[in-house]
Each structure stands twice: as structure tokens, then as C-alpha cells.
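Key result, reporting period 2: structure in, sequence out.
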């Protein structure tokens, strides 16, 4: 891991108010806290809908942070990937025990960079959007109407077909999709232009979770992400990109907790 981070000293990340939603078990069994990191356009509400309480019910303290400019967190000029990573590291460092970082979508990209700065107990990448030109190509093929304007600086737009499986009722899917709002053009462009993440500190185990029917991330991309960490992806057929909101939301979070309990 590179130690010299002169940019952090010369150009520090501006502080903002961070929204963190939490659920705690009835009894503290000393298990590591889970820190959920939503993807771009989402907020902590994404995990508060189902996963936070469910994880707490299985004995794990669960927290979800809204990245700056998302949910009810504050914003600052020039927000991008470095600021998002800073937010995650700061929240994780404030937890009472070494945390498990769980990133969703582009939040998985944030987590992959945060792992070089925070020695996590473990990490889970859910439907990971890890960026690069392949991500742009996939977006243009599967969502040209929402992606092409974003190339000119407009907010990226995603809808039901990109986010959810067919089992989720349309009314509920539309209500969730209406809450997804992209706020940082710089962060959008950095999905393509960012540098590869540095190796994780402490070599934590990393699990990749997704679905073959994800409207944003291909199965090949899931496989590549898992291979980067020496494993294979755990797949849930028929579910969408936002696994934690789909009708079968219990399956992936139970699998994640099962994996953590065996580790």
C-alpha cells in the first residue's frame, strides 16, 4: 500500500455533514459492524428499506452512509471519487470495531478504493460497477437513452429495466426509481477515467454478489470483479441491480451474513 498521499495534505477533502442510518442487534455479541455504501444516485435509504434491520436481526450492527451529495448528506464543490472514499473511511474509522465494508453499484468502486486506506475485516461488492470503458459500453448498449445525454454532462438516468427484476411490482419499482438522482458530473466521468484501486490493506476476504439479469452489470463483469480478489461471484438469478429492494431481497443478505459467519 502506498503511504505517501501528498494530495490529501495539499488539497484536503472539504468536510460535510454525513447521513448515517443504523440498526443494532438486541444484544451486542461482539460481531463486526457492517457499513453499507450505496451506489451513485442512491442514499442510505437503499439499505434502510430491508437490509439494515435484517442484518441486525442476525446479530450484526448495521450502518449505511449516504455519500456526500446523496440522501441527506451535505455536498461540496468538486465532489468526486476521492471525496466519496474519504467519507467511507471516516465513517468506518468512527465505528467501535473493525468493520465489514459493503458497497453496491458504484459504491463498490468507492469501497475498492477505501480498502487501501482502511483495514477492513472483510468486504462485499454487490452488483459492482467498477468503471472503465467496458462500463460505458455496457451502459450504451443497455440504456442508450439515459446514457448518451450523460456524456454531455447531463445526469445519468436509469429506470425500472436497469434496476429491478421482473417480480417487483411496477408501482413499487417506479417509486424506488424516482428516488435515484445523480448529482456529480465529475463522479460520473470518473467511472470511466479513474485509476485502478491500490491493493487492500491487510488482504481482507472479498465477496462479489450479483445477478445474471442485472440491467447494468454483465455476468462477465461480475466474474472479472470476483477474479480480481481470487474468487467467483455469488449469483442470484432473476434479480435486478438493486438486489436489496427486489422481492427476494432476503436471499442475498442472508448469503452475505452466512459468508461472514463462516469466515
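The corresponding designed sequence is given below.
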Amino acid at each position: 500500500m502506498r503511504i505517501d498521499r501528498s494530495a490529501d495534505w495539499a488539497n484536503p477533502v472539504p468536510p460535510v455533514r454525513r447521513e448515517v442510518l443504523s440498526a443494532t442487534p438486541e444484544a451486542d455479541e461482539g460481531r463486526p459492524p457492517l457499513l453499507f455504501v450505496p451506489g451513485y444516485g442512491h442514499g442510505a435509504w437503499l439499505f434502510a428499506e430491508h437490509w439494515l434491520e435484517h442484518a441486525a436481526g442476525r446479530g450484526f450492527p448495521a450502518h449505511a452512509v449516504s455519500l456526500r451529495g446523496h440522501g441527506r448528506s451535505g455536498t461540496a464543490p468538486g465532489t468526486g471519487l476521492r471525496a466519496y472514499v474519504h467519507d467511507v473511511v471516516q465513517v468506518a474509522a468512527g465505528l467501535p470495531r473493525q468493520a465489514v465494508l459493503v458497497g453496491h453499484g458504484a459504491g463498490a468502486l468507492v469501497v475498492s478504493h477505501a480498502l487501501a486506506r482502511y483495514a477492513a475485516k472483510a468486504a462485499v461488492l454487490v452488483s459492482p460497477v467498477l468503471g472503465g470503458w467496458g462500463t460505458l459500453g455496457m451502459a450504451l448498449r443497455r440504456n442508450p437513452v439515459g446514457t448518451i445525454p450523460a456524456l454531455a454532462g447531463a445526469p445519468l438516468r436509469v429506470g425500472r429495466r436497469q434496476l429491478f427484476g421482473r417480480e417487483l411490482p411496477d408501482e413499487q419499482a417506479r417509486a424506488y426509481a424516482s428516488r435515484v438522482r445523480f448529482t456529480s458530473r465529475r463522479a460520473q466521468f470518473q467511472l470511466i477515467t479513474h485509476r485502478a484501486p491500490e491493493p487492500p490493506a491487510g488482504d481482507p476476504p472479498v465477496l462479489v454478489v450479483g445477478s445474471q439479469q442485472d440491467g447494468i452489470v454483465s455476468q462477465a463483469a461480475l466474474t472479472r470483479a470476483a477474479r480480481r480478489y481470487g474468487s467467483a461471484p455469488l449469483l442470484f438469478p432473476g434479480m435486478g441491480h438493486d438486489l436489496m429492494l427486489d422481492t427476494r431481497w432476503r436471499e442475498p443478505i442472508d448469503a452475505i451474513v452466512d459468508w461472514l459467519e463462516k469466515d
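The mean pLDDT is 88. Residues 6-262 form a domain with the Rossmann fold fold (CATH 3.40.50.1820). This case is discussed further under Risks and Mitigation.
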